[in-house]
Design goal:
Clc chloride channel; transmembrane helix; Chloride channel protein; 731 residues; transmembrane; CBS-domain; voltage-gated chloride channel activity; 4-stranded mixed beta sheet; ClC; mainly alpha; single chain
C-alpha cells in the first residue's frame, strides 16, 4: 500500500508530459510528414478555438482573426509575388539591352523606353534614336563597319559572361537551393516531403537576383518556372508568421499550393491558368478551400503586376496578339502535325537532358559548376550573336513569331511583295507572295531552331535558376511559324487545289502564320511538361486568342499522346526520379500482384521486428534500441511473447521525451521502467520512478492485414498521405 501511495504522490511529476514540450510533432529534415496526423491536429485546434470563442468577446475576436488569417496570407503572397515579378521583368528588360548599348539621357532606361522619350524618332527608324547608342558608337564613334561589329560582338559576350559568372557565384556561396527550376522540388515538398531551407529567405533573395542575371545573360532559359519557386518562398515566409500554418506542415502545404498558382499567374499573366496549373501539375492534396484561396492569390498577384505595368502596353503579358481571320477545318491537319512535332521534341528533350544530368551527377563534370556555366554561356553568346533571332531575348523572339503581319510591321518576317494597285482596308491584307526578307528569315529561323534544340538540353539543370517554359515555347514557335509561312505560300500559289478552293479565294487573307507559331509553342510545351488543360488555358490567357481554343486543344492532346507513347513521365517527374526524391505519383499505375506480406519488413530469415513493450522496458533499453536502429518509429506491443499491437511511437518524440524527462523530472534514471499504459505497472519496493510516455503514443496507427493486396496499400499511402503502415495478423 505504501508503494502505491508513493506512486500516486509522484503522479503529478510523471504526468508532466501532458503539457506539450517544444519540438514534439515537428519533423526531421528530408523526412515525410504524416498527413493524417496533421489533419487531426488541425481539427483539434479548431475545436478548441470554437469552444473558447463562446467564453468572451476577446476570444471571439481571436477566433475571427484565426479564420481570416488564411485570406490575409493569400493577400500578402499575391502582393509580394506580383511586385517581385514586375521588378524582375523591368530589370531583365534593362540588362538585356545593356549588352548591346546604353541610353545616354538616362542609363536606367532600356532601348525601348529610351526611344519613347526621344522627339527625333521617325516611324520607319523607330529603333534608332540619338539618345540610344550602341557600344561601338559610344567607344569608337562608328556604328557600321567590321570594327564596330567586332567590338559590339566582343562586348556582348563579355556582358553575358559577367552576368552568368555573378549568378552562379551567388548561388554557390549563398543559396545552393536557388538553382534549377524548382518545380520538381516543389512537387515533392507538396507531396509531404521536407527539405529545410529550400523555401527560405536566402533562397528567395538570391533566386530573385540571379534570375534577372541569367535571363539577361542570353542563356536558353526562362524565368517562368523559377517564378513559381519564388512565389512559394513568399508563401513559406508569410505562413511562418501565423501559428496556424507554421506549426502544422499539412496546412502550410495548402498555402504553398496557392502560392504556386500565384507564381504562374504573374509569370504568364494567366490567373486562371495558374490555378489550373497548381491543380493539375504541382499539387498533391488540393481541397476545395485551397481552390478558392489559390484563385484569390492569383487574382491579387495579377492585379499587382498589372499596376506595375512592366511591359508598358497595359497588358499582363509580352505576347499579346490580335488575329483578324478565323481558322478553317483544313488547317487542323498542320496543327496536328505540329502536335506530333511537339511530342517528339518533348521525348527527345527529356531523354537527352536526363542523360546529361545523370552524367553531371556521376562524373567529374559535377565538381566544376562555375566552369560549366561559363562554358555554356560563352558558346551560347558566340553562336547567338550573328543570328538576329537568337541575339534578342527569347520572350521578344516569341513575341515577334506570334505577331500577325499588319501594314505597319517592319520585321523581316513581314517582307512580302505588295500588289501596287491594292485598295483594301489596312488590317485585312490579302495573302501575298513572299519577298527576299521572308526567305532570309526562314533559313535564319531554321538555324536558330537547331541551335535552341541543342543548347537547351545542356542548359537546363545547371547550377543557376533556369526555367523551361520559354525555351520550349520558342522551339515550338519557330517550327510553327515556318510551317505557317509554308502553308500560306502554298495557299497563295496553289489556290485552285481542292483543299484551298472552298475557303481561299485569290485576294483573300486566309492563313495566319502567327497562329501556327502559337499552336507550335503550345505543342512543344505540352510535350515537355505533359500539361493539357492548364496549358491551353495559359496559352489563350497569354495571347488573348479565345477563338483558337480548338487548334490549341488539338495540338496539346496530340503532343501528349505522342510523348506518352515513348514514356509516361514529364520532365519534372523525370528530375524527381533522377534526384531520388520520395514521390508517389498519383498518375502512376501499380502493376504487381503482390500482397502486403511479400513486401513488409523484416522478411523471413531477417532479424525480428524492433518493438517496444508497453510496460516492461527500462529507459536504458529504449535508448539502446534507438541507438542500434535507424527506424523512424517503433510499434508498441503488449509483451515480447504476445505481439499484440497497442500503438506506435515516433523515434524523434521518444528521444525528446526521454531527454526532457532526465532534465526536468527527479528520479528518472537509466533503469527506470518506461510504460505506455494509463496506470503505472506494479513495481517492487525501492525501484526508481517509472516514466510515463503515453502522451507520445499514437493509439490509432494505420494497420492492414497481411493478406491486403499491395495495390490497395499503395492507394492508401497515396490518398491518405501516410508515413508508415503496420501489417498485422489477428492483431
Amino acid at each position: 500500500m505504501v508503494n502505491a501511495g508513493d506512486m500516486n504522490g509522484s503522479g503529478n511529476l510523471m504526468d508532466f508530459l501532458d503539457e506539450p514540450f517544444p519540438d514534439v510533432g515537428t519533423y526531421e529534415d528530408f523526412h515525410t510528414i504524416d498527413w493524417l496526423r496533421e489533419k487531426s491536429r488541425d481539427t483539434d485546434r479548431h475545436r478548441k478555438i470554437t469552444s473558447k470563442s463562446k467564453e468572451s468577446i476577446w476570444e471571439f475576436i481571436k477566433s475571427l482573426l484565426d479564420a481570416w488569417s488564411g485570406w490575409v496570407v493569400m493577400l500578402l503572397i499575391g502582393l509580394l509575388a506580383g511586385t517581385l515579378a514586375g521588378v524582375i521583368d523591368l530589370a531583365v528588360d534593362w540588362m538585356t539591352d545593356l549588352k548591346e548599348g546604353v541610353c545616354l539621357s538616362a542609363f536606367w532606361y532600356s532601348h525601348e523606353q529610351c526611344c519613347w522619350t526621344s522627339n527625333e524618332t521617325t516611324f520607319d527608324d523607330r529603333d534608332k534614336c540619338p539618345q540610344w547608342q550602341k557600344w561601338s558608337e559610344l567607344l569608337v564613334s562608328q556604328s557600321e563597319g567590321a570594327s564596330a561589329y567586332i567590338l559590339n560582338y566582343f562586348l556582348y559576350i563579355m556582358w553575358a559572361l559577367c552576368f552568368a559568372f555573378l549568378a552562379v557565384s551567388l548561388v554557390r556561396v549563398f543559396a545552393p537551393y536557388a538553382c534549377g527550376s524548382g518545380i520538381p522540388e516543389i512537387k515533392t515538398i507538396l507531396s509531404g516531403f521536407i527539405i529545410r531551407g529550400y523555401l527560405g529567405k536566402w533562397t528567395l533573395l538570391i533566386k530573385t537576383v540571379t534570375l534577372v542575371l541569367v535571363v539577361s545573360s542570353g542563356l536558353s532559359l526562362g524565368k517562368e518556372g523559377p517564378l513559381v519557386h519564388v512565389a512559394c518562398c513568399c508563401g513559406n515566409f508569410f505562413s511562418s508568421l501565423f501559428s496556424k500554418y507554421s506549426k502544422n506542415e499539412g496546412k502550410r502545404r495548402e498555402v504553398l499550393s496557392a502560392a504556386a498558382a500565384a507564381g504562374v499567374s504573374v509569370a504568364f499573366g494567366a490567373p486562371i491558368g495558374g490555378v489550373l496549373f497548381s491543380l493539375e501539375e504541382v499539387s498533391y492534396y488540393f481541397p476545395l478551400k485551397t481552390l478558392w484561396r489559390s484563385f484569390f492569390a492569383a487574382l491579387v498577384a495579377a492585379f499587382t503586376l498589372r499596376s506595375i505595368n512592366p511591359f508598358g502596353n497595359s497588358r499582363l503579358v509580352l505576347f499579346y496578339v490580335e488575329y483578324h481571320t478565323p481558322w478553317y477545318m483544313a488547317e487542323l491537319f498542320p496543327f496536328i502535325l505540329l502536335g506530333v512535332f511537339g511530342g517528339l521534341w518533348g521525348t527527345l528533350f527529356i531523354r537527352c537532358n536526363i542523360a546529361w544530368c545523370r552524367r553531371r551527377k556521376t562524373t567529374r563534370l559535377g565538381k566544376y559548376p562555375v566552369l560549366e556555366v561559363i562554358a555554356i554561356t560563352a558558346i551560347t553568346a558566340i553562336i547567338a550573336y550573328p543570328n538576329p533571332y537568337t541575339r534578342r531575348s527569347t520572350s521578344e523572339l516569341i513575341s515577334e513569331l506570334f505577331n500577325d503581319c499588319g501594314a505597319l510591321e517592319s520585321s523581316q518576317l513581314c517582307d512580302y511583295i505588295n500588289d501596287p494597285n491594292m485598295t483594301r482596308p489596312v488590317d485585312d491584307i490579302p495573302d501575298r507572295p513572299a519577298g527576299p526578307g521572308v526567305y532570309t528569315a526562314m533559313w535564319q529561323l531554321a538555324l536558330a531552331l537547331v541551335f535552341k534544340i541543342v543548347i537547351t538540353i545542356f542548359t537546363f539543370g545547371m547550377k543557376i535558376p533556369s526555367g523551361l517554359f520559354i525555351p520550349s515555347m520558342a522551339v515550338g514557335a519557330m517550327a510553327g511559324r515556318m510551317v505557317g509561312i509554308g502553308v500560306e505560300q502554298l495557299a497563295y500559289h496553289r489556290h485552285d487545289w481542292i483543299i484551298f478552293r472552298n475557303w481561299c479565294r485569290p485576294g483573300a487573307d486566309c492563313v495566319t502564320p502567327g497562329l501556327y507559331a502559337m499552336v507550335g509553342a503550345a505543342a512543344c510545351l505540352g510535350g515537355v511538361t505533359r500539361m493539357t488543360v492548364s496549358l491551353v488555358v495559359i496559352m489563350f490567357e497569354l495571347t488573348g486568342g479565345l477563338e483558337y481554343i480548338v487548334p490549341l486543344m488539338a495540338a496539346a492532346v496530340t503532343s501528349k499522346w505522342v510523348a506518352d507513347a515513348f514514356g509516361k513521365e514529364g520532365i519534372y517527374e523525370a528530375h524527381i526520379h533522377l534526384n531520388g526524391y520520395p514521390f508517389l505519383d498519383v498518375k502512376d499505375e501499380f502493376t504487381h500482384r503482390t500482397l502486403a506480406t511479400d513486401v513488409m519488413r523484416p522478411r523471413r530469415g531477417e532479424a525480428p521486428l524492433s518493438v517496444l513493450t508497453q510496460d516492461s522496458m527500462t529507459v536504458e533499453d529504449v535508448e539502446t534500441l534507438i541507438k542500434e536502429t535507424d527506424y523512424n518509429g517503433f510499434p508498441v506491443v503488449v509483451s515480447k511473447d504476445s505481439e499484440r499491437l497497442i500503438g506506435f511511437a515516433q523515434r524523434r518524440e521518444l528521444i525528446l521525451a526521454i531527454k526532457n524527462a532526465r532534465q526536468r523530472q527527479d528520479g528518472v534514471v537509466s533503469n527506470s521502467i518506461v510504460y505506455f499504459t494509463e496506470d503505472s505497472p506494479e513495481l517492487p519496493p525501492n525501484s526508481p520512478h517509472p516514466l510515463k510516455l503515453r502522451r507520445i503514443l499514437n493509439l490509432s496507427p494505420f494497420t492492414v492485414t497481411d493478406h491486403t493486396p499491395m495495390e490497395t496499400v499503395v492507394d492508401i499511402f497515396r490518398k491518405l498521405g501516410l508515413r508508415q503502415c503496420l501489417v498485422t495478423r489477428s492483431g
